[in-house]
Amino acid sequence: MDHRTRLFESHRPLLEGLAYRMLGTRADALDIVQETFLKWSQTDIDQIRDARAWLVTVCSRIALNTLQSARSRRETYVGTWLPEPLMEESRSPDEEPQIDETVSVALMHALERLTPNERAAFLLHDVFGYSFDEISALLGKESAACRKLASRARARVRDARPKFAASSTEHQRLLTAFLNAARAGRIDELRSLLAEGVELHADGGGKAETVTHVLRGADAVSTFFARVWSATAHPDGRYRFVVRWFNGSPGLLVHDDDRLIAAVSVIIDEGVIRGVYAHRNPEKLAAFLAEDLARPESTYINGVSLTIDGAFSA
């Protein structure tokens, strides 16, 4: 590997992280990073004083252009659009996983409310730590304008960012308690785990049956899950749960025999579940298929049914 390529590869994780947060899809992120590399390979790098700044600038501008066209495609998407699941980076067995709310499904979904420039300013400043003077050069806008963009963005995504970050242990405990209460049909217990204003967002993309609207409120969400999960529980173990980290926190992969049919994640704040996000679109679930679902750190919960085909409909 030559010096040019080594230098680029040392920045690849940063570029892929930025591109994914800008677009919400892994394929688009990889395409953006590849295009950034092509421009890098055609540039006299001896004339570049700060490789990181150059690469982030180019990657950001390509991502902004790509986001414009992606937004128009998403306007015709059937139902709720959720970001493509992002697998966790491999880690050593003794490494304690940490919640990363900057790639949570909740925040990525909320970022869709922003204009491309708001999204870029917010991510570059609040997530990647760039100054507004640096962002000004990246976006070609005055520093004060970039500050306003980030401020507006911050206000619009505030509800998707927990006030108090949950530990990975608390997150998994609440996720499991939610599952067990719903499976047993214990609505009062289930409701106690949910914030009063909890929301359920489900993404089927017109390719799998889901709720066609956002369910809001502890009563509606608890009643829905208690009805669905208790009605489809099978003691023969046909339905299987795998606790798997994706988008920065533990989530649930749901299998009907060997077929992956749903991926569920939650956002936790102040000790309760504030949002539930369910991927049902098989094209997005394909992100998990390359993963080894029998990894030792996975937790299996057998004999529990999250859904049958169409069970996310109401």
TrEMBL record:
Every RNA polymerase sigma factor 70 region 4 type domain range: 105-156
RNA polymerase sigma-70 region domain residues: 7-71
Listed SUPFAM superfamilies: NTF2-like, Sigma2 domain of RNA polymerase sigma factors, Sigma3 and sigma4 domains of RNA polymerase sigma factors
GO BP terms in the entry: DNA-templated transcription initiation
One matching Pfam family: Sigma70_r4_2
GO function terms (MF aspect): DNA binding; sigma factor activity
Assembly information from the UniProt record: Interacts transiently with the RNA polymerase catalytic core formed by RpoA, RpoB, RpoC and RpoZ (2 alpha, 1 beta, 1 beta' and 1 omega subunit) to form the RNA polymerase holoenzyme that can initiate transcription.
Name of the molecule in the record: ECF-family RNA polymerase sigma factor
Protein species of origin: Sorangium cellulosum (strain So ce56)
